[in-house]
Amino acid sequence: MSLKVLFNLNTSLYIRRQNILSSRYFASKTEKDVIVSDEKSIYESAEETPIYDSEQQEKNDELEKKRNKSRLNPNHRNILFGRRPYNESIEWFHNTVKYKKRMLGRYGMKAVEVPVGFAWPTPEEVEDMKEYERVAYPYSIQEEWNRIEEKNRKEAEAIRAREADISQKMAKLDKWINDLNTRLAKKEADMLEAKKNKERLIEEVRDQLGYGVSVNDEKFKAVMAEKEKEQKKKLKMAKKKLKEEKILAKMNKVPENGENQTTVSLNEPIK
């Protein structure tokens, strides 16, 4: 028999003997002893508190730092996880009541180190708020409601007046369009008449100088200017004569009541 076989046989016998001894030892314990030992182990485990040395704490901090892959600033990281940005006061306004109220409203009571009673207004602040409301809102609810109703009524009246004015103007729209068309037609007729008049003057000048003369000739232009001057003079005389006739007709007109006959001078403009 080889050494290897002997070694394996001795090892198996040793393991079998240890199993038998352990089974007899645990079997000799009573059920009560087992329960007591279990409760004792539970209490001991509950009362145990893990104690870390400084090196282990530093390792944990370093590990937590390596886990942070966001590259955010500490204050931004705190905001990301719903915590107040700064654990200690950095700026002067971090110690103000207004800032602490903001932190309290956003992150809860754990975000402030002082009792939350600081958020309540002081008696002086209450009086200031009452004074502000008295000045800013001097009217009662009923008075303010009446003012709103009066304002709405005036706005409604203004809208109705505006709509009525638009309706009246729309009714006159056809008349205005006709008047505009009449003025445009008159202006077009005057332009056509002026064109015909100029053509007539050109024909008269050509009859006088000959048809071979160009309209750009200086002699032609001089005679044309003289003809236009004579025509303007005739028109002026005709207007003056018409004006005198209107004045005479107005002077000869007798009022219906027969009193205060109107006297009109020759220099009075005709409307």
Automatic annotation (TrEMBL):
Residues 250-271 are annotated as: Disordered. The keyword Ribosomal protein applies. It is found in: Mitochondrion; Nucleus. The keyword Mitochondrion applies. Residues 258-271 have a biased composition (Polar residues). One of its GO terms (cellular component) is mitochondrion. It holds the Pfam family CR6_interact. Keywords: Cell cycle, Coiled coil, Mitochondrion, Nucleus, Ribonucleoprotein, Ribosomal protein. Belongs to the mitochondrion-specific ribosomal protein mL64 family. Acts as a negative regulator of G1 to S cell cycle phase progression by inhibiting cyclin-dependent kinases. Inhibitory effects are additive with GADD45 proteins but also occur in the absence of GADD45 proteins. Acts as a repressor of the orphan nuclear receptor NR4A1 by inhibiting AB domain-mediated transcriptional activity. May be involved in the hormone-mediated regulation of NR4A1 transcriptional activity. May play a role in mitochondrial protein synthesis. This is Large ribosomal subunit protein mL64. It comes from Vespula pensylvanica (Western yellow jacket).
